[in-house]
């Protein structure tokens, strides 16, 4: 058990921790990091976490056995409470599956946090001190001892004789067991008040009207109606501005539609021009024009051979057509070289 307690100053250096001790320390560090309000009762053995719910402070106690985390921790609460995660026999031992199924690979910090989250979602109820669910000391006047918790019958106490001195006279016999002789005259009980209310509707209605909760509901309702009316008035005041913005938006939308149509038309025109100005299209046109010039030159030569044109006209026309044909063929070949080198649409540098 040396690893549970710090060594004295003269005992030398601490021995190295084994695997179980290292896992124990990791679980404790996880618990400390997950809960800043953790209180250390006994180092590496017992810890306590206070938390407040429903104006009551409850402490969660975590006790780590010697073989922890091979052995599951013992988690309890104080004072005793009623909860579905707490043993109903004593109201202190937590019987959650997270604790029952705790193993080597569990995370103690997350397990305790899950228990606290469950307590927040479903607050535990403090166990009552009396059979009726509350303590008599909450209602007894100052200086009056509590009476036994059983049925009582009221009997008036006989008044002393006017001439008798209570301080020096003979002592009175003790009141029989079960009688309340030191209480004042009976006052209307809650049951009698409820009976009167049930029989008199006016009293019942007056009681409900005087409830602070009902007054608060009425006040909240009036404030809510006032806020709704103010908001409606502000909305009506903003209606002309909203209508103006609506008309402006419709005008802008119409402009957008027209600009979109114009843009699509220009994009179509740009696509057509791009197609007509591509190198392959220009090459095809040059090829057709060169073939046309070649045919015209051959037709001129045939006319000359058949004697339909003189030699001067033939030389002028034939040389012009053949020159144009060769020029177009040269341009076509140059475009083909450019297409092979740069593609259909060469980039400008």
UniProtKB/TrEMBL annotation:
Keywords: Endosome, Protein transport, Transport. The keyword Transport applies. Residues 260-349 form the VPS37 C-terminal domain. GO terms for biological process: protein targeting to membrane; protein targeting to vacuole; ubiquitin-dependent protein catabolic process via the multivesicular body sorting pathway. GO terms for cellular component: ESCRT I complex; late endosome membrane. It is found in: Late endosome membrane. Pfam families: Mod_r (PF07200). It is a peripheral membrane protein. It comes from the Eukaryota. Component of the ESCRT-I complex, a regulator of vesicular trafficking process. Required for the sorting of endocytic ubiquitinated cargos into multivesicular bodies. May be involved in cell growth and differentiation. Belongs to the VPS37 family. This is VPS37 C-terminal domain-containing protein. The lineage of its organism: Eukaryota, Metazoa, Chordata, Craniata, Vertebrata. The gene is vps37a.
């Amino acid at each position: 058990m040396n690893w549970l307690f710090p060594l004295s100053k003269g005992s030398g250096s601490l021995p190295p921790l084994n695997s179980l001790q290292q896992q124990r320390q990791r679980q404790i560090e996880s618990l400390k990091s997950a809960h800043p309000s953790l209180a250390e009762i006994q180092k590496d053995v017992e810890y306590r976490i206070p938390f407040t719910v429903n104006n009551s402070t409850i402490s969660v106690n975590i006790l780590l056995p010697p073989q922890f985390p091979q052995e599951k921790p013992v988690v309890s609460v104080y004072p005793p409470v009623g909860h579905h995660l707490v043993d109903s026999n004593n109201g202190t031992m937590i019987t959650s599956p997270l604790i029952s199924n705790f193993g080597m690979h569990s995370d103690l910090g997350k397990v305790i946090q899950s228990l606290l989250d469950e307590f927040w979602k479903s607050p535990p109820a403090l166990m009552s001190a009396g059979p009726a669910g509350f303590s008599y000391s909450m209602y007894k006047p100052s200086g009056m001892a509590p009476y036994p918790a059983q049925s009582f019958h009221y009997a008036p106490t006989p008044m002393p004789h006017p001439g008798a001195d209570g301080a020096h006279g003979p002592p009175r016999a003790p009141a029989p067991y079960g009688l309340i002789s030191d209480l004042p005259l009976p006052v209307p009980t809650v049951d009698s008040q409820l009976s009167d209310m049930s029989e008199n509707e006016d009293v019942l209605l007056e009681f409900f009207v005087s409830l602070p909760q009902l007054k608060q509901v009425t006040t909240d309702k009036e404030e809510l109606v006032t806020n709704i009316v103010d908001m409606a008035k502000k909305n009506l005041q903003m209606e002309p501005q909203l209508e103006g913005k609506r008309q402006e938006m419709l005008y802008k939308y119409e402009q957008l539609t027209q600009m979109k149509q114009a843009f699509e038309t220009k994009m179509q025109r740009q696509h057509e021009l791009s197609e007509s100005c591509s190198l392959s299209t220009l090459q095809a046109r040059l090829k057709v024009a060169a073939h046309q010039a070649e045919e015209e030159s051959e037709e001129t030569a045939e006319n000359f051979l058949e004697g339909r044109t003189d030699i001067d006209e033939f030389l002028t026309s034939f040389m012009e057509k053949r020159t144009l044909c060769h020029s177009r063929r040269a341009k076509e070949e140059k475009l083909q070289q450019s297409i092979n080198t740069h593609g259909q649409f060469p980039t400008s540098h």
